[in-house]
Amino acid sequence: MEVFRKRPIEKNSTNVLKRELKLKDLIMLGIGAIIGTGIFVVTGQASANYAGPASMISFIIAALVVVLNGICFAEFASRVPVSGGPYSYMYVVFGELTAWIAGWLLICQYMLAVSSVAAGWSGYFQGFLSSVGVGLPQALTAGYNPEEGTYIDLIAGLVMILITLWVTQEAKKALRLNNAMVWVKFGVIILFVAVGVFFVQPENWQPYMPFGMQGVFNGAALVFFAFLGFDSISMAAEEVENPRRDVPRGIIGSILIATILYVIVTLILTGIVPFSQLGVADPVAFAMRYINQGFTGSVISVGTILTLLTVTISMLYSLARLIYSISKDGLLPKFLQQIDNKHRTPKNATFVAGAFGLFFAAAFPLNILAELTNITALTCLALMALGVIRLRKMLGEPKKGEFKVPFVPLLPIISVISCVFLMLQLDKVTWTVFIIALLLGLLIYFGYGYKHSDLNEKRS
């Protein structure tokens, strides 16, 4: 069995999608995917439970690890400008089996992200409805949990349907709502900083590092995942006007902007509220209520509800492109590569992605699946770092105009070590679920993908 057969770069160069995305669209896509529950929820959890006011250092450490991985993505995006992200890149450098593993793990990661954000959005929206005296029947408020009297999350299901229909539109149109909501997100953050800066009490920053450096590193392991989503930019490569130039810039630009915003919000947040009180679901809005700025807190809550849509749009957009790319190679059924004649978008892949997202968001308990996000993402990032080393051996140094990772192989090796270090911080349950998911992915590949692969058919 030739499970490590490689896909020539030229094969992926054929493009039927509409190229219309610019650098601004890519940065907006990246920010829409990155900045969501991280800045509005994880900031408080990291401060209260791990690093205290020093959680801003945790964000910087996590950002450094993400940038190490981001520049690996950038070189691949510059030299192999095709959609599919790590899946397509691994196909070129390591071969089909490794590509499938990367693609399968990404499907798990994006599927979980889409579903969990939709469910989180439902929770925020239901809280808002309750504040104005409107409530849903208990059975329709959350996923299947008979002990709690819940069977389906109606609002999460409805929002998945809405987002799926929106993402089937032209890429430019589908991302227009995303771009608008990103500006709303910026507005919420600016409002918080503009009001909160006048209520900062420097004594709240003491002790600055209450849990020591170990707490800071533990915090970094947590907030690392607040940066995930930058890879969604590489999924859109086939719809970018100048992918070699703009995809790397979009990846690095979105990471840097997110880092600056995370640090500023954490600085203000821990300056307003003693860190021990920030372990709440809505720390940013809670901080406003803490200083008796209830109206501002309500505005921030509404803004957060709106802007969480951007994460759902970005992740579903990326998931659909990933499924489309894999189906083009025959590893998933061919009907998933059908393109909408009017909008030039992968219609069937989007509907399938949306259907699975709808199922998990509305009916499936996410507590076990949530643990997969961390380890699947880190595994893909480690593969990408190793892939850059292999890419250099295959194609040599990047040419003029192509992005270049400095100090290869040193920086990619450091990136792999950092990913493995964070993976080892995860508990045995997470590793068990990860292995089960990996075995399921291998079963799909050997049961369907290998036989139907385009490369297999051409050799037979």
TrEMBL record:
The UniProt record lists the keyword Transmembrane helix: yes
Residues spanning the membrane: 26-48, 54-77, 89-112, 150-168, 180-199, 211-230, 251-275, 295-319, 349-366, 372-391, 403-424, 430-450
Gene3D superfamilies linked: Amino acid/polyamine transporter I
Record keywords, A-Z: Membrane, Transmembrane, Transmembrane helix, Transport
Subcellular location as annotated: Membrane
UniProt name for this protein: Amino acid permease
GO molecular function: amino acid transmembrane transporter activity
PANTHER family the record matches: CATIONIC AMINO ACID TRANSPORTER 4, INNER MEMBRANE TRANSPORTER YGJI-RELATED
Protein's membrane topology: Multi-pass membrane protein
Pfam family, one: AA_permease_2
Cellular component aspect of the GO annotation: membrane
Native organism: Tetragenococcus osmophilus
InterPro entries per record: AA/rel_permease1
